[in-house]
UniProtKB/TrEMBL annotation:
PROSITE patterns: ACT (PS51671). It catalyses: L-homoserine + NAD(+) = L-aspartate 4-semialdehyde + NADH + H(+); L-homoserine + NADP(+) = L-aspartate 4-semialdehyde + NADPH + H(+). Its cofactor is a metal cation. This is Homoserine dehydrogenase. It is an enzyme of class 1 (oxidoreductase). Catalyzes the conversion of L-aspartate-beta-semialdehyde (L-Asa) to L-homoserine (L-Hse), the third step in the biosynthesis of threonine and methionine from aspartate. The lineage of its organism: Bacteria, Bacillati, Actinomycetota, Actinomycetes, Kitasatosporales. Its EC number is 1.1.1.3. Pfam families: ACT, Homoserine_dh, NAD_binding_3. Belongs to the homoserine dehydrogenase family.
Amino acid sequence: MDSQPTACTLSAMGNSVRVGLLGCGTVGEAFAELLVERRGAIEDVTGISLELARIAVRDPGKPRSAKLDSGLFTGDPYDVVKADDVDVVVELIGGTAPAGELILAALNAGKSVVTGNKELVASSGPELYAAADRAGVDFFFEAAAVAAVPILRPIRESLVGEDVTRVAGIVNGTTNYILTRMTADGLGFDEALAKAQELGYAEPDSTADITGADAASKLAILSSLAFNRSVAADDVAREGIVGLDREDFELAAQFGYVIKLLAVADRFPGDTGDEAGAQIGAQVFPALVERDHPLATVRDSFNAVFVTTSAAGELMFYGRGAGPRPSASSILGDVAAAADHLRRGTHRRVPVGAPAAIRPTEDLEYSFYIRTEVDEAPGVLSQVTGVFGRHGVSIRKVDQHGSESQARVVFVTFPATERALNAALDELRGLGHVRGVGRVLRIYK
Ligand SMILES: NC(=O)C1=CN([C@@H]2O[C@H](COP(=O)(O)OP(=O)(O)OC[C@H]3O[C@@H](n4cnc5c(N)ncnc54)[C@H](OP(=O)(O)O)[C@@H]3O)[C@@H](O)[C@H]2O)C=CC1
Ligand SMILES: N[C@@H](CC=O)C(=O)O
């Protein structure tokens, strides 16, 4: 909701809004160029002239885009956040420090802030939202979740009256690109990652992408806004895509699936259906997705998120989830919105819900795909299925391929809790004829 007059209004500044940029790397440079390219068109539509006033970088001596005035650059970010000639600060340094303190300094100096920094928003969101509200300015971060795709604003505004029960989908462009290239072109993991880095999809430290940490931050942001409960990145259980091997991709295809890194958050009502006992389950994991499911067709750096609500039903948000220009587009949209608020003397508060009660991962239910290596010996298969059965895990499909002495057996289960599955796997690992239990994958429904 728009609230309270902002610290400085456009009437005091003419029709010009001055933008200060922190960071001019992969995304920052694309944003600065897009602003310069589109400022005339933005002025035509909004009547506001966006002016790039200052740019802070680590090394002002580095060669920069010829489209940017070299006189704008400084090596001191406080030259931007404290400057009198900056109205909106755009933070594209990344990481939690010094980005967090710079954003706080900018907000406290009465400047609206736009960022694409999911790591920071997922870890310190409530503190930053409160600082923005106290200062009467905007804090926008659309590019922090699913880059180019407008999803946070629709969740906050269009769906404000809705009861959201699920947010689920593909929210990391790098890993989706890697999985697509590995499946479609047979590229190796390292080669596919190097290409994703070259294309500007990966984080400055790509470990965040491949371990699922980046997706976990995005899911924390999405679910905090969708469920109006504060979910932190640490509340999101995560598994990345490291260690998936060719055999997993081949077997998935054989069973009619593709492998995707998914982020899934569900809101479970309390026992009596009330808000008081409600819990949120939030996880990031590589999953088997049926070949004809819409998520299976989301390729390369594209992302897609389904938002399920009680009245509207299922909504799908789709588009580029990574990359310099797509991210720049989203940041520019936020800057234009913040500038418009300055003109109207308002700001939009980010709602901060109470901390979410998190459902333990072990209580979440899925169907599972489990790859095992067992000795070819009489009765082994029934011994293994017996173990699953004892722990309440029912088997839906078995696929066995073997040599004379050893067989690879793949089990697909009916839905079971992770607790039941883990207990069955612990017992299986202790069985004499079981040589190995490979990666277990959840099956998305
Ligand atoms: N890649 C993508 O598709 C997307 C990325 N994002 C987010 O965008 C943000 C930026 O990522 P990316 O552009 O890849 O990062 P880069 O590493 O490419 O760029 C970082 C920039 O910050 C500058 N910088 C670093 N430290 C300081 C400092 N102490 N003071 C001033 N400037 C500093 C660097 O300066 P110098 O140039 O001198 O080294 C560089 O210009 C991250 O939060 C990321 O998560 C969000 C959406 C999509
Ligand atoms: N590294 C991220 C960039 C966008 O948020 C990704 O690959 O999704």
